[in-house]
Design the sequence.
């Protein structure tokens, strides 16, 4: 498998699925996998700009005019530095930009290779989020799609602003003639954003009604959260079980469906197999219990992650739905759909 090209095709396909419509490309050798994938995708309109500074300000203006994120791509080296003025302006004007800088792989950095500079955090504090995932490998199509989905969500906000992905590629950078790679199928998260994430609330309510073995998992909650009363009603109406960590402060609330000693239970293979949930609602921080996390990852149920701080607390990449909204507001919106 041509890893660089497969990554690019899959990554770009997910960008389009998440709503990206426009890209501005300043071409170069190291960025060839992404440039070719963008050009091939029927859902993305590509503007070619030879000069990086001109291209970056064109992308900035396009994002301002449309109100939608625009991708901006360049090759490795000083080309990335030419984007900096537009990135700074995009940050202060809250303009959604997805800045993609191709890079040399780690073994070609710091050894005098051509067009190799320190790009990982080249824009400093002028971006909403910055990430370098390292060179793609053959086993990560799901992570590639999640990276694309998160990058666009971070750029869209709130608040909106530039996001920087530094993407190293190893050669070969182009496919064999006549054999462009197809995007690899893999699950990607559905993301709902807003004060109440109305679309996500409807999805969660419908999923709870349809679920046979729903489970609520509560980690440490934010200070001042008063979720016991609405959560108790949700548990009663849905018939869901509750696995609450001590740090959640929910164990003394007398909530229906509470299971305190869940770790010994899920260590019993027969019990664990018979009680695997088909729906998980996660509240608060990532659970600290390794057996619990492993059990949930193995079951791979539909998982709603309530993420009010846009912190993406999902180290196992298990969330199928990310709802970036207030927990209390979400529960209040879901409860009417659960009443008989």
Sequence:
């Amino acid at each position: 498998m041509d890893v660089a090209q497969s990554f690019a095709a899959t990554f770009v396909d997910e960008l389009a699925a998440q709503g990206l419509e426009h890209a501005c490309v300043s071409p170069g050798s190291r960025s060839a996998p992404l440039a070719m994938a963008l050009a091939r995708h029927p859902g993305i309109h590509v503007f070619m700009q030879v000069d990086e500074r001109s291209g970056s300000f064109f992308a900035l203006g396009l994002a301002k005019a449309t109100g939608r994120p625009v991708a901006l791509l360049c090759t490795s080296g000083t080309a990335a530095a030419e984007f900096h003025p537009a990135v700074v302006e995009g940050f202060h004007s809250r303009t959604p930009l997805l800045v993609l800088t191709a890079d040399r792989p780690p073994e070609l950095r710091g050894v005098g290779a051509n067009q190799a500079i320190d790009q990982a955090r080249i824009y400093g504090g002028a971006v909403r989020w910055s990430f370098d995932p390292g060179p793609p490998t053959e086993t990560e199509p799901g992570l590639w799609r999640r990276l694309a989905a998160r990058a666009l969500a971070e750029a869209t906000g709130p608040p909106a602003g530039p996001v920087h992905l530094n993407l190293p590629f190893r050669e070969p950078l182009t496919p064999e003639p006549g054999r462009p790679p197809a995007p690899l199928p893999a699950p990607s998260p559905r993301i709902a954003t807003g004060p109440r994430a109305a679309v996500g609330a409807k999805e969660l309510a419908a999923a709870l009604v349809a679920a046979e073995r729903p489970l609520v998992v509560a980690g440490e909650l934010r200070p001042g959260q008063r979720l016991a009363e609405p959560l108790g009603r949700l548990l009663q109406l849905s018939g869901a079980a509750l696995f609450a960590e001590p740090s959640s402060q929910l164990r003394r609330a007398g909530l229906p469906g509470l299971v305190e000693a869940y770790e010994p239970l899920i260590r019993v293979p027969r019990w664990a197999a018979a009680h695997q949930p088909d729906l998980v609602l996660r509240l608060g921080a990532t659970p600290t219990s390794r057996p619990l996390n492993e059990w949930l990852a193995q079951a791979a149920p539909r998982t709603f992650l309530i993420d009010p701080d846009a912190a993406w607390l999902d180290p196992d990449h298990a969330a199928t739905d990310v709802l970036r909204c207030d927990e209390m507001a979400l529960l209040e919106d879901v409860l009417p759909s659960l009443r008989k």
